[in-house]
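Before we proceed, please read the two lines closing this message. Report back on whether the structure tokens fit the sequence:
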Amino acid sequence: MRLLLETYALPLSFAAGDLEWESRVVAAHHKLAFMERRMMAGDQEGTELWKRYDREFHQCLIEACGSQTLLDLYGGVFDQYLRYQMVAVIFRGEIAADEHRMLLSCALTRQADEACKLLTQHVNGCVAHTLKSGALT
């Protein structure tokens, strides 16, 4: 459901996003990247903050889609997704950080098709990592 909503909203958001939207996306990514660097350096105390910044970045990417109903629905779906993250602490290190950097680049260059492919890879990779780790069993 997350992928369905997010890949629908990304092209709409990329097409409608303005300078203010870009600024929010860049700021959200900056906070997320900061926490990712800390976690890759071994600091696991910021896990909750990283989860918040991850959610904020993904929300910012689609916030210019033009539909508050879609954003509200997405927020609920992402919150359910986060429930599993709370248990599994699903940070995949450099792979996830690279995917976030590429999503940022796609947003700033308005490459919606590429962003949808990356997002699908990103979410599916997270799910596969969680299942492989056995964190939910």
